[in-house]
């Protein structure tokens, strides 16, 4: 029994560490890398980092990220070649430790296109929270509520669906509420439905008027933000309810203690007479 519990505990710890590492990689890529690099979308200021884990060792990447110029000045032929290939644009030194850089490498590896199956979309191509911008969310909101016309003249989402989002009018009731769509379906599920509508009403609306990749991306960003805010609001209400329940229980306990003490004092007073 004890051994089984220990195995479960170790697995849970490993899973927690892995998820934390992935989340850290998301955040660090957004903060430190995204302005100069893409994952599969071509060269930006710096090189496209898709599948960098297959072209360079982790040790080399760590050294280059921490101080590319130090590696170049040391005579490293690969570092010199990369520097020359990209017009000798100096990559700023990054004050990241080895584990932080490894989490970025893991994020890049997970979201890099499969060289053997280029038609298969990666998680990042479907959706990545780390890459969402406020502009994406706002575009998605305008697409959802019909403020922005769709490229292929499809109907607005709000004509059939509702979401609980501040400043937005209530939507239609002909189809399911999409406030918690990300929790129920995930990015891949929503992406699949938007691109290949399985419902007759959606087929009628989008069968001959498909959404573009950019429109799908924006809608995913908006629905992700809606879901996140709804979850935070629910957590806040849950916390308030728990606090209120705790206060009520606490007051009842105090009242019971006072009643017990009052009864004891009364009994003691009666015995003295």
Written description of the protein model:
This protein has eleven helices and no strands. The chain has two domains: 2-127, Cytochrome Bc1 Complex, Chain D, domain 2 (Orthogonal Bundle); 130-229, Cytochrome Bc1 Complex, Chain D, domain 2 (Orthogonal Bundle). With 273 residues, the protein is an all-alpha fold. 63% of the residues lie in helices and 0% in strands. 19% of the residues are buried.
In short:
The protein is mainly alpha-helical.
CATH superfamily membership of the largest domain, which one? Cytochrome c-like domain
Q: Could you tell me the CATH topology label of the largest domain.
A: Cytochrome Bc1 Complex, Chain D, domain 2
Radius of gyration computed on alpha carbons: 28 Å
* Helix percentage range: 55-70%
Q: Which structural class fits the helix and strand makeup?
A: mainly alpha
Total tally of structural domains = 2
Runs in which pLDDT lies below 50 for 5 or more consecutive residues are 1-22
CATH class category name of the largest domain: Mainly Alpha
What is the count of DSSP helices, taking H or I runs of 4+ residues? 11
Termini separation: 62 Å
Named CATH architecture of the largest domain: Orthogonal Bundle
Shape: flat
Largest sheet: none
Order of helical and strand elements: HHHHHHHHHHH
Proportion of residues in extended strands: under 5%
In total, the number of strands is: 0
Average per-residue pLDDT, rounded, comes to 81
